[in-house]
């Protein structure tokens, strides 16, 4: 028995030694590297997609010494802060006066400048004192339609419907403030901490909106909507492709026939330009009253009464001296107007405008911010409710359906062009809803969806429906051919 146990124990110890030896030999051999699947080969023509990097244009900065002198000498060349408010670049007499003062100040201060430095300082000061500072070249450029200043280092300009960052910059925040004050001071408007946001205009009628810190986080913001020195005509818009000659004939017939019309569209879509063209169709013998926040309309008729809103008297109670669009619309009814043209309805004045249209002031024109004729109806309802009158919505809708005859939808398309994309008749009420009917619709080749196209290269086409007010056009001597309203347009076959 004992021999059996001894033999058994010796076998177990031998087996344990073999297992230990095997483990030691395995530890001595390095582990085999894990094989990774081969990386897929990239296709020879395939390139990693690169996100386009925005390129900031090189900036045309004033040299440091000239910038410092420009800031120090601006006020020293004027007898009073507002002396040059009515002066303009190009007036040789005034420019020579300022240049003479500049030479005298530099001589008395003992400041020596090289000819290039003097020339740079002279141009910079003339732009500041007689123009609009750093953006004076952009203001003078007739190809630029909009200028947007966002702080000293960021100025964008719109040209042919496309935004581009400009090379010009202001020296600093004080430089922008100097230009902003020069814009608002002749209009007797205040821009300060108590009134940090101002609507104004340039001498040529261009619209200006200014916001200063702390509301403007990147520095004083100036937005200028420029207008052409010569008002655009219907022929110009036809040539630009905004609408066809037949549509222009139809719009003229509608204005002369005293239809109430609303131009609808988004910001920068060309509503004011179109309103100008429509207003040009008003006969010369009629008395026209225009009402605007900032005067933009350029009517050529002789008998035009232009009205503009007025801000409160600075330092007052915020009410004294203020005139709103609504105040002016009410007042215009006592001026014996043949036509009332409101630059834009954006609040309770919409109700007063509808009342005027419904009480004998036919042929009135206005604009509204909205994205389609149907949205325009809803927008007018909302604006009327802002008048503070507790009127049921159905009553307001009836007022709209009775007052407005035609909605013209203006839009800026993807290619930057501005076109009329929809002309819609307001036909009345059906139950509790306003009935609309498209007369013209903008279409592009290959378009299959309903509604107007948002792409360029199309044309405003007739839908085939004749307006219910056609007899009214005939009463005023307009016998429009059937081809104007007939369907089967170029892209509508």
Number of strands: 15
Strand order of the largest sheet: 9-8-10-11-7-12-13-14-15
Q: Biggest sheet, open or closed, and with what strands and sense?
A: 9 strands, mixed
Helix-strand makeup class: alpha/beta
Q: Number of helical runs?
A: 15
H and E string? HHHHHEEEHEEEHHEHEEHEHEHHEEEEHH
How many whole angstroms does the radius of gyration measure?
A: 35 Å
* Mean pLDDT value: 87
Described by the principal axes of the CA atoms, the overall outline is globular
Helix content: 25-40%
The fraction of residues assigned to DSSP E strands is: 15-25%
Termini gap: 114 Å
Low-confidence stretches are none
Task: Please write out the topology.
Elements: H1 2-28, H2 64-73, H3 92-109, H4 115-130, H5 136-140, E1 144-150, E2 155-159, E3 162-165, H6 173-184, E4 197-201, E5 207-211, E6 221-225, H7 234-240, H8 245-256, E7 261-265, H9 271-279, E8 288-292, E9 304-308, H10 325-332, E10 339-342, H11 349-358, E11 365-369, H12 373-385, H13 393-403, E12 406-412, E13 418-430, E14 433-443, E15 459-462, H14 470-475, H15 482-485
Parallel strand pairs: 7-11, 7-12, 8-9, 8-10, 10-11
Antiparallel strand pairs: 1-2, 1-6, 2-3, 4-5, 5-6, 12-13, 13-14, 14-15
Helix pairs in contact: 2-4, 10-11, 11-12, 11-13, 12-13
Please give a structural write-up.
- The chain is α/β, with parallel strands linked by helices and 493 residues long.
- The strands form 2 sheets. It has a 9-stranded mixed beta sheet, sandwiched between helices.
- The chain is built from 15 helices and 15 strands.
- α11 packs across α13.
- α11 links the parallel β10 and β11.
- The termini are far apart.
- The model has no long low-confidence stretch (mean pLDDT 87).
């Amino acid at each position: 028995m004992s021999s059996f146990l001894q033999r058994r124990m010796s076998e177990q110890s031998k087996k344990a030694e073999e297992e230990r030896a095997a483990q030691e030999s395995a530890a001595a051999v390095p582990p085999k590297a894990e094989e990774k699947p081969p990386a897929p080969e990239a296709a020879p023509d395939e390139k990693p997609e690169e996100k386009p990097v925005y390129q900031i244009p090189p900036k045309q900065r004033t040299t440091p010494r000239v910038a410092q002198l420009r800031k120090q000498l601006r006020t020293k060349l004027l007898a009073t802060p507002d002396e040059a408010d009515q002066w303009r670049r190009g007036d040789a007499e005034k420019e020579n006066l300022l240049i003479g003062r500049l030479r005298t100040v530099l001589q008395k201060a003992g400041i020596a400048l090289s000819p290039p430095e003097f020339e740079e300082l002279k141009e910079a000061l003339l732009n500041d004192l007689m123009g609009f500072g750093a953006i004076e070249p952009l203001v003078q450029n007739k190809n630029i339609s909009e200028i947007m200043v966002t702080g000293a280092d960021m100025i964008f300009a719109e040209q042919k419907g496309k935004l581009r960052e400009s090379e010009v910059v202001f020296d600093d925040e004080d430089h922008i403030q100097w230009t902003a004050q020069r814009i608002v001071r002749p209009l007797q408007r205040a821009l300060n901490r108590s009134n940090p946001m101002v609507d104004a205009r340039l001498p040529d009628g261009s619209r200006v909106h200014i916001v200063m810190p702390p509301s403007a986080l990147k520095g004083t913001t100036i937005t200028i909507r420029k207008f052409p020195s010569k008002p655009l005509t219907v022929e110009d818009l036809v040539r630009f492709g905004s609408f066809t000659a037949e549509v222009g004939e139809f719009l003229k017939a509608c204005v002369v026939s005293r239809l109430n019309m609303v131009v609808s569209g988004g910001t920068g879509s060309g509503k004011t330009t179109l309103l100008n063209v429509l207003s040009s169709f008003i006969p010369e013998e009629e008395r026209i009253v225009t009402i605007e926040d900032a005067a933009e309309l350029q009517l050529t008729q002789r008998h035009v009464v232009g009205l503009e809103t007025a801000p409160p008297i600075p330092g007052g109670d915020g009410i004294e001296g203020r005139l709103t669009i609504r105040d002016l619309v009410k007042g215009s009814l006592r001026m014996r107007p043949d036509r009332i043209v409101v630059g834009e309805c954006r609040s309770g004045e919409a109700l007063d405008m509808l009342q005027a249209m419904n009480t004998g002031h036919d042929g009135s024109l206005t604009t509204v911010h909205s994205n389609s004729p149907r949205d325009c109806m809803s927008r007018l309802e909302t604006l009327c409710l802002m008048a503070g009158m507790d009127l049921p919505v159905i009553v307001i809708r009836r007022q709209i359906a009775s007052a407005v005859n035609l909605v013209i939808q203006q839009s800026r398309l993807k290619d930057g062009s501005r076109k009329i994309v929809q002309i819609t008749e307001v036909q009345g009420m059906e139950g509790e809803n306003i009935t609309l009917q498209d007369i013209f619709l903008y279409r592009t080749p290959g378009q299959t969806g309903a509604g107007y196209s948002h792409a360029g290269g199309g044309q405003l086409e007739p839908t085939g429906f004749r307006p219910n007010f056609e007899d009214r056009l005939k009463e005023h001597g307009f016998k429009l051919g059937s081809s104007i309203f007939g369907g089967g347009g170029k892209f509508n076959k």
